[in-house]
Amino acid sequence: MTTPNLALPYIAAAQAQKHVTHNAALDLLDGLV
């Protein structure tokens, strides 16, 4: 799964516990561009 505009890869829930914060930051960054 990636962000819609920049295709930045999300961290899956099984990969790391900080995936929620990281994915939210990617969504914010993707939305600003």
Describe the structure.
There is one protein chain. The protein has 33 residues and is an all-alpha fold. The protein is built from one helix and no strands. It has one helix at 19-32. The longest helix has 14 residues, at 19-32. The radius of gyration is 9 Å and the shape is flat. The chain starts with 18 loop residues before the first helix and ends with a helix. 0% of the residues are buried. The mean pLDDT is 81.
Secondary structure blueprint with pairings:
Layout: H1 19-32
What are its keywords?
mainly alpha
Query: Could you give the count of β-strands?
Result: 0
Whole-number average pLDDT? Answer: 81
Name the beta content range: under 5%
Largest sheet: none
The stretches of 5 or more residues where confidence is low (pLDDT under 50) are none
Cα end-to-end separation: 18 Å
The proportion of residues forming helix, as a percent range, comes to: 40-55%
Structural class: mainly alpha
Output the radius of gyration: 9 Å
**Count of helices?**
1
Specify the overall morphology: flat
Question: Would you list the SSEs in sequence order as H and E?
Answer: H
